[in-house]
Design a protein that fits this description.
This protein is α/β, with parallel strands linked by helices and about 170 residues long. The chain has 5 helices and 4 strands. The radius of gyration is 17 Å and the shape is globular.
């Protein structure tokens, strides 16, 4: 099971309305719980399962101007670790993939908003984002997908309860 939901709107946490938090909580955590409850019994019967949550590097290093997203993604990470502890004995692993800046429509939208506010071109904004990584570029979706595919495979059978940044080394914490 791969949980991958687009992020909530940007902005400071202090300015977000309660409904913004409720909606994001439902979209990012409650839906994961509903899906897990629907599938885990079958995984237990098989003695094998994978739950992979695509969240964000904000779990390790909150990102500026993404207050609701930072908050909710942290909750998903802790939910995942809890499930990893509860389900590992059944051969079920639960892990998180933490994409950094990735060439997706969401990132293009974020860059578009920044472009309108600053007058910079979207290409220049992408270049700046890429420069934040030791790899000097942003990720392609296939690179995130390859990480998910590995974690879903039998080869990742003893990897459980972790956060895997796919950010070219941009995150400053271990």
């Amino acid at each position: 099971m791969v949980n991958n939901t687009g992020g909530p709107a940007g902005g400071p946490a202090i300015d977000a309305g309660l409904d913004e938090f409720r909606i994001a909580f439902n979209q990012h955590l409650v839906c994961n719980q509903v899906l897990a409850q629907a599938l885990v019994s079958g995984m237990k019967e098989l003695g094998y399962g994978r739950i992979i949550n695509v969240i964000s590097t904000s779990v390790k290093q909150p990102l500026p101007n993404l207050g609701v997203s930072n908050t909710i993604r942290g909750a998903v990470a802790n939910w995942s670790k809890t499930l990893a502890n509860e389900l590992g004995g059944y051969g079920i692993t639960v892990n998180n993939v933490l994409p950094g800046a990735t060439n997706t429509s969401r990132l293009k939208s974020i860059a578009g908003v920044k472009s309108e506010l600053t007058g910079q071109s979207v290409d220049d904004i992408f270049s700046e984002m890429g420069a934040e990584s030791p790899m000097k570029r942003i990720a392609e979706p296939e690179e995130v997908g390859a990480t998910i595919a590995f974690l879903a495979s039998p080869a990742a059978g003893y990897i459980n309860g972790i956060n895997v940044p796919v950010d070219g080394g941009r995150t400053k914490s271990l």
